[in-house]
Amino acid sequence: xxxxxxxxxQMEATQHKAASVSATVDQQTHASDMMISDSTGTSSNGDEExxxxxxxxxxxxxxxxxxxxxxxEQYLTDRFNLVGLNKYFDEKMSxxxxxxxxxxxxxxxxxxxxxxxxIERLERNCAxxxxxxxxxxxxxxxGQYDMMTLYREFIFGKCPRTACESHPLLPLxxxxxxxxxxxxxxxxxxxxVYLPKYIAQSCNDxxxxxxxxxxxxxxxxxxxxxxxxxxxxxxxSELKDGENLDSEGDDLNIINQVYRFNTEIDGCYxxxxxxxxxxxxxxxxxxxxxxxKQRYVPRVYDIDLNYNSMILRYQExxxxxxxxxxxxxxxxxxxxxxxxxxxxxxxxDLFM
Length: 352
Known about the structure:
Layout: H1 2-52, H2 55-60, H3 73-76, H4 93-100, H5 104-110, H6 116-137, H7 141-152, E1 170-172, E2 184-186, E3 193-194, H8 214-224, H9 230-238, H10 250-258, H11 274-281, E4 299-300, E5 303-304, H12 306-330, H13 344-351
Antiparallel strand pairs: 1-2, 2-3, 4-5
Helix pairs in contact: 4-6
């Protein structure tokens, strides 16, 4: 019996030891899993931070630069797309590209040796370089698609003309070479050009801005890098729940400060071709039903001013003739139809 009891005690000791070893292994495995998950989470957060710190991301997040789209890095580094741009810069294109694409070797070796003046010049040249490449990129299929996204969100503003009914605008450059003129805004409806400083940008991202609390102001002001005014901070702390800051129009003043274009952006960053090429790519953006059919005619005591009314009627005649010509090119059945060209009664009514 003593022999059997001794064997049983040895077996129990062996099982207890095995259980303790298994528990230790499980603890180590769990700890290693925790370390792996923590390291994975840290690396993912680090990747997100690195994405936000990229030169292109920083450039696009600057106030006023929301009218630019992000250029694909493959397009940016393709030398074929950069032909003819080197004559506008005193900096090497290779240096600017390495800085814009966050090349590690450049940032570790060459960049630390640059002084403040050289860094400022590099930043200025890179911004100009990006803008000139941007004018070419937005003529590609992907670039047109990206601009369509901004167009639908009214990022470029709305036409101030009454007959256009707040139709979205498109950016336009009157010149394709830098340092000639700033960018303008083109309306596909009235086919006219407007100055950006008189156009307010869209507030679609912040629909609740009118009468919202201060944290809503902080939310969209942080996006564009504007600081919240101190007197508004004090006033908000004194308000009761449910009240807002629009008693004196302060909220609208902030919105006017934030949603303004950077009017110093060069027009060549969009070019003279873009809006018209965009409308060829997306012809359904504007239809004939949307085209304004009425034109304002100056009147004095309900009598048309002769000189101005004749000019407007002549322009209207040319528009109708052009529309008729286009329709006949599309539909051959209309060729023999008597239209504006031969309608003497219409011409007499138009100019009498």
